[in-house]
Design goal:
Blueprint lengths: L4 H7 L5 H9 L3 H23 L2 H18 L9 H19 L31 H20 L3 H12 L4 H8 L3 H28 L7 H12 L2
């Protein structure tokens, strides 16, 4: 569904978080649409980091929005609206993890390296015929990075997504996950280290196969040389 003109106007108006919440609490659905448009990506990525499943992350986000809609009257502006919403979605995602019987994998609440933005942009004069190949390479790189992020331990993965992918501050991440800031720093450092190691191993394996020579190519060269003797 395309963004309505009214929702776009709200997004560009500079309205405060508290006023947005008050308008939604009063039943303003356009303001609610504007909020969803503004925070969809961040909240989806947060749910996805916890659940490791695209469809379930979407479901969790939708339920999280419905829970938030019923609670907007309680928002007092003591934190950023994005932080308040993230906490609601985190709670919904964690509840789903518990329901799946994986309590041992839940992030303890008692206490964002390579990502898509690191891929070098195409030069401005890149020819049109090269663009599909480069787009495919970007997609492959993104898929690899996403797989490696998914493989991070649960406690590290969500912190990494919030800090490295969504670029939340240490303080915001700590509030969203209800863990100490020192724990956020430790987990983020460890997540980056694990991700670098994992990507480095992947590159090493790929280098072993680079410019493959054995098999048909080897036979062809040998045969042609022998023919010219």
């Amino acid at each position: 569904m395309p963004t309505s003109a009214a929702a776009r106007q709200i997004l560009s108006s500079g309205i405060s978080d508290l006023e947005l919440a008050q308008r939604i609490a009063a039943g303003d659905e356009i303001a609610f649409e504007a909020v969803m448009r503004r925070y969809n990506r961040t909240l989806y990525r947060t749910a996805r980091a916890i659940l490791k499943d695209d469809a379930e992350a979407e479901d969790a986000l939708q339920v999280g929005y419905l829970n938030a809609y019923r609670a907007f009257g309680e928002f007092r502006g003591q934190s950023r609206l994005s932080t308040w919403l993230t906490r609601i979605v985190v709670n919904e995602a964690l509840m789903r993890v518990r329901k799946r019987g994986r309590e041992s994998a839940v992030i303890p609440l008692d206490g964002c390296a390579g990502n898509e933005g690191d891929i070098v942009a195409d030069p401005a004069d890149q020819s049109m015929r090269d663009q599909p190949e480069r787009a495919a390479m970007r997609m492959q790189s993104r898929a690899l990075i996403e797989r490696k992020i998914d493989a991070l331990p649960d406690a590290f993965r969500t912190v990494f997504v919030l800090r490295a992918v969504e670029e939340l501050s240490v303080e915001e991440t700590a509030i969203c996950l209800e863990i100490p800031e020192a724990t956020v720093r430790t987990r983020f450092f460890r997540a980056r280290s694990l991700l670098r190691e994992s990507l480095a191993r992947e590159i090493d394996f790929a280098l072993d196969d680079a410019f493959a020579f054995a098999g048909a190519r080897c036979d062809r060269i040998v045969t042609r040389v022998l023919q010219r003797l």
